[in-house]
Design goal:
The chain is of the alpha/beta class. The protein contains 13 helices and twelve strands. It has two domains: 27-294, TIM Barrel (Alpha-Beta Barrel), CATH 3.20.20; 300-355, no CATH class. The N and C termini lie far apart (48 Å). It binds acetyl coenzyme *A, the ligand O=CC(=O)O and magnesium ion. Acetyl coenzyme *A binds next to strand 1 and helix 1. It holds the Pfam family HpcH_HpaI.
């Protein structure tokens, strides 16, 4: 945890910096869409994507060639200055804190586009000390540039130490907006033996018990069902608990098999069901998947509204379609109803869909 006392926690870290937020706004962020601002073809598509995606993220770290680091930083400044992002948030991913580029990333971006930047994603965070460093530096830069709203910090959970320290990372600063899983770097750092960027692995499985013959001997060579397991379940669950504890937001990360839209959707949905609010999109085709998966389904909202209507003041127990509903299941339903309301505010199509749902008795 931070060394600061409770009273100091919400004081600015530099004279003239904006006041830290007491609550992190629940802004829809189903897809955080990555683009390389040094790639002219990609960058040219960004203005046309506004309104179709919740977050556009100018990536400066991995996936940007070393020779293009300066062009990416300058490209992001140019795009941000020239563009009205409307309802779409603008985030960036800066280079790692031990890299030769990160200081220039921060000292360039904050004065140039600090008012437009909603969130800075910090990669390879190891512990609270990394967040404290960025926190103070941002406060100094915000004060110098006269920025009026605090820029929030999002950490990528992609080192073994970061996972071990996940609680202190979430609570390190009032700027903490959320965490994303970084399965590629995390796999490397933990010395896991998968070379995939996110997703499952056919070797990580549980096999059905062998049948037995009449004498009770195991038939280990018999045909047996196998059940592929999720390599990321433990980390995502740990991340979700840490984020919920600290009032910030958990996200899945990259799914590198761009062509496998089916497995991508499965991975996203597992994260949604476990409590994540969004995911990364690396390619335009992943945006629609994320928007679909991270928006509650019509069936879920229809059911949730029925429970809300039936539960009256929220106490007691009722039966709906043969199932018991009570205060706890009402709270589960309210999670979905609240999310649907937030999404309807920024997504007119979704609003029409949710408005058309009839609540049956
Ligand atoms: C482990 C991590 O750190 S993950 C995060 C870092 N990685 C990234 O940010 C990767 C971002 N994505 C990309 O670089 C690219 O999408 C790649 C390399 C995966 C695939 O690129 P391509 O082979 O060019 O994809 P493809 O040919 O299908 O692209 C189709 C069109 O979409 C454009 N496009 C591709 N990705 C993006 C994107 N992320 N944003 C906007 N436009 C894009 C292409 O420029 C192309 O445009 P065109 O039709 O005018 O030619
Ligand atoms: O940055 C993301 C990762 O998976 O590594
Ligand atoms: Mg990474």
């Amino acid at each position: 945890m931070s060394h600061k006392s409770a009273k100091d926690f919400f004081r600015p870290l530099a004279v003239g910096a904006p006041l830290p937020l007491r609550e992190i706004p629940a802004r829809p962020s189903r897809a955080i869409h990555f683009f390389d601002p040094s790639n002219e073809k990609m960058a040219a598509k960004i203005p046309g994507m506004i309104g179709t995606v919740d977050v556009l993220l100018g990536n400066l770290e991995d996936a940007v060639k070393a020779d293009n680091k300066v062009a990416a930083r300058e490209g992001l400044v140019k795009i941000a200055q020239a563009t009205d992002f409307g309802p779409t948030q603008l985030w960036t991913r800066i280079n790692a804190l031990d890299s030769p580029w990160v200081l220039d990333d921060l000292t360039t971006l904050v004065p140039a586009i600090g008012e437009k930047l909603d969130v800075i994603m910090v990669p390879k965070v190891q512990g609270a000390e990394d967040i404290h460093y960025v926190d103070r530096l941002l406060a100094q830069l915000e004060a110098k540039a006269g920025i009026t709203k605090p820029i929030l910090i999002h950490a990528i959970l992609e080192t073994a130490r970061g996972v071990a320290n996940v609680e202190e990372i979430c609570g390190a600063s009032p700027r903490m907006q959320g965490l994303s899983l970084g399965p590629a770097d995390l796999a490397a750092d933990r010395k896991m033996k998968t070379t995939r960027v996110g997703g499952g692995h056919p070797g990580y499985l549980v096999r059905q018990d062998p049948p037995r013959d009449a004498e009770g001997n195991s038939q280990i060579d018999a045909q047996r069902a196998i059940f592929q397991q999720d390599l990321w379940h433990y980390t995502i669950a740990k991340m979700v608990d840490a984020c919920a504890t600290h009032g910030i937001y958990p996200y899945y990360g990259p799914f590198g098999d761009i062509a496998d839209v089916v497995a991508c959707e499965d991975q996203f949905r597992n994260a949604f069901l476990l409590g994540c609010v969004g995911t990364w999109s690396l390619h335009p085709k992943q945006i629609a998947i994320a928007n679909r998966v991270f928006s509650p389904s019509v069936e879920d909202i229809a059911h949730a509204r029925r429970v809300v209507a039936a539960m009256g003041d929220g106490t007691g127990a009722v039966m709906i379609d043969g199932k018991m509903e009570d205060d706890a299941s009402l709270k589960q339903c309210l999670v979905l109803v609240a999310l649907a309301e937030q999404l309807a505010e920024i997504d007119p199509e979704l609003k029409k869909t949710y408005d058309a749902i009839e609540v049956t008795a």
